[in-house]
Amino acid sequence: MSAPTVLTCGDPSGIGPEIAAKAWARGERFLWLGDPRHLPAGTDWRELREGEAPADGPLAVLRHDFPAAAPPGQPDPANARAVVAAIERAVRLVQAGKAGAICTAPIHKKALKDGAGFAFPGHTEFLAHLAGVERVVMMLACPGLRVVPATIHIPLAEVPRSLTPALLEETIRITGAGLVRDFGLARPRIAVAGLNPHAGEGGAMGREELDWMAPLVARLAVEGMAIRGPLPADTMFHAAARAGYDVAVCAYHDQALIPIKTIDFAGGVNVTLGLPFVRTSPDHGTAFDIAGRGVADPSSLIAALRMAREMAAARGI
């Protein structure tokens, strides 16, 4: 049997515990790492030890006690250090071979900053730090589309100076290597979106495409990559266009995330490429506004758990 996926609890006042219980009820099997007090009332659970594999029956719990209760929708900074420690423990488990992959439920960065002095922009950067990796890539994936934003959580005004040739090249290389290793694509087809409208329209709407993006793409193609671009982003995401590539590398956050959330809002998965272990996450936040009401949709978490297993299998884990 392959090593199981460990699912971290995320912020326990969000929908993470609820969607974990729902995913288990729908047949997913994983190790839930968290405080069982935070699971929805009536959840049938069984405590496992590290190294034990989940089986049918009650929800498999790797118990990780928190100092405080977790009222739905009310994040408590008192729990922040335990949230961080759960992520750290998950990384130790996967590094020790006691788990095959990590799937992370959403965290609340302000609560972590207030309660634990959390200095990272998010999960992705913290996991890279724990793994000792300088640069990783965020990919969002659903059955119909994979997208990678080269720049992520920065103001739009900062994108032109942040999107450097070195950054874009590194993003493309990590993306290509990740699709080979984690998705079994021997020669991934990569489409690169332009920065400007109409990919600059020959310099009339910006010169980045002419001055350095096109030469970079051409050089990588000469090396043997299956790569095209820079392409006008407004014509890259209809069905016929998507059939021509395996991943779209985009210039900035919304250029990548708007199309995938339009195509599959509930089923998108956040994947971190470039780590020495597999990590996925549902493509949504803590949803404090609906936490505890029993209405949270587990579709994205289920997709993330399944993708984690598939990626681990591609690595032979």
Structure description:
- It is found in: Cytoplasm.
- One of its GO terms (molecular function) is 4-hydroxythreonine-4-phosphate dehydrogenase activity.
- Catalyzes the NAD(P)-dependent oxidation of 4-(phosphooxy)-L-threonine (HTP) into 2-amino-3-oxo-4-(phosphooxy)butyric acid which spontaneously decarboxylates to form 3-amino-2-oxopropyl phosphate (AHAP).
- Belongs to the PdxA family.
- This protein is of the alpha/beta class and 317 residues long.
- It folds into two domains: 1-137 and 266-317, Isopropylmalate Dehydrogenase (3-Layer(aba) Sandwich); 144-263, 3-Layer(aba) Sandwich (Isopropylmalate Dehydrogenase), CATH 3.40.718.10.
- The protein is built from ten helices and twelve strands.
- The protein has helices spanning 16-25, 80-95, 109-116, 123-131, 159-162, 165-183, 208-223, 239-242, 253-263, 299-314, and strands at 5-8, 31-34, 45-47, 59-63, 101-104, 137-142, 145-149, 189-193, 226-231, 247-250, 269-273, 279-282.
- The chain has a twelve-stranded mixed beta sheet, with helices on both faces.
- Strand 11 (269-273) and strand 12 (279-282) form a beta hairpin.
- Helix 2 (80-95) packs across helix 3 (109-116).
- Estimate the global geometry from the Cα principal axes: elongated
Using only C-alpha atoms, the radius of gyration works out to 20 Å
- How many individual domains? 2
The end-to-end span amounts to: 10 Å
Mean pLDDT: 96
In N-to-C order, the SSE pattern is EHEEEHEHHEEHHEHEHEHEEH
SSE class: alpha/beta
Tell me the name of the CATH class of the largest domain: Alpha Beta
